[in-house]
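Task: sequence design from structure.
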């Protein structure tokens, strides 16, 4: 078992990392809002601009930091379980692997998602389908994404990935790998299950705007409830019904 001091230290580190990510996003969002107000205040539609390597890199960083802020709290039970098993192995004389190695593997998966989201944002921007707040300006596209996200909540793939995310003990018993390379692979594997569970929900940020932090926080809270609460799976399905209803309303309004 973890020592009494270890659990709060690990939890505090995860919450601090997540909190720092949110603080950076808030600072970035305020800067973007001030820039938008200072330039072209009368323009209602965002005009596409050139995507340089620097802009792509900064957008990727924004997405990855956002994923860290949104997803780390929900991964805390699995990270704590890894730390518990690892401490027990060290107590029996086996090699010790820092929790950071497992966590890095988990975050690398969300880094890959962030790269894909950046490419999607770039494509939408070049098609003049994003507002200045980085939200999709086409109601039909937004409605389709919401409907797709709602339907995905009921798919076998979603439910299978959610079961893995909700069962840290089963994951450790069935998928443990020794050593640093093994811990990194475990982190990647757990991150992949988490991605399979939540990627469509994260893609909704392209609908509401990647820098709409209130709705980003609401999505993060929904993911946390879905993973950690006893009735999380049913809450996820109810959320899916709501997404389909709102998406159909948006699509109908654009017809």
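Answer:
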């Amino acid at each position: 078992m973890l020592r009494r001091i270890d659990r709060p230290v690990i939890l505090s580190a995860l919450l601090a990392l997540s909190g720092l990510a949110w603080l950076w996003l808030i600072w970035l969002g305020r800067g973007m809002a001030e820039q938008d107000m200072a330039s072209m205040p009368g323009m209602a539609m965002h005009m596409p601009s050139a995507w340089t390597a620097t802009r792509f890199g900064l957008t990727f960083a924004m997405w990855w930091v956002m994923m860290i802020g949104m997803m780390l709290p929900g991964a805390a039970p699995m990270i704590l379980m890894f730390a518990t098993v690892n401490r027990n192995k060290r107590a029996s004389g086996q090699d010790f692997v820092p929790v950071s190695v497992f966590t890095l593997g988990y975050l690398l998966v969300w880094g890959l998602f962030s790269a894909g989201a950046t490419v999607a944002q770039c494509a939408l921007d070049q098609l003049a389908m994003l507002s200045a707040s980085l939200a999709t300006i086409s109601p039909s596209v937004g409605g389709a994404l919401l409907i797709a996200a709602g339907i995905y909540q009921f798919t076998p793939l979603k439910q299978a990935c959610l079961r893995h995310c909700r069962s840290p003990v089963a994951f450790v018993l069935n998928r443990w790998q020794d050593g640093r390379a093994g811990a990194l692979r475990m982190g990647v594997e757990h991150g992949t299950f988490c991605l399979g569970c939540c990627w469509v929900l994260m893609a909704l940020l392209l609908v509401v705007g990647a820098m709409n932090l209130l709705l980003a926080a609401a999505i993060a809270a929904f993911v946390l409830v879905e993973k950690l609460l006893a009735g999380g799976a049913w809450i996820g399905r109810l959320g899916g019904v709501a997404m389909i209803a709102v998406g159909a309303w948006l699509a109908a309004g654009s017809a």
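The chain has one domain: 6-30+50-86+96-254.
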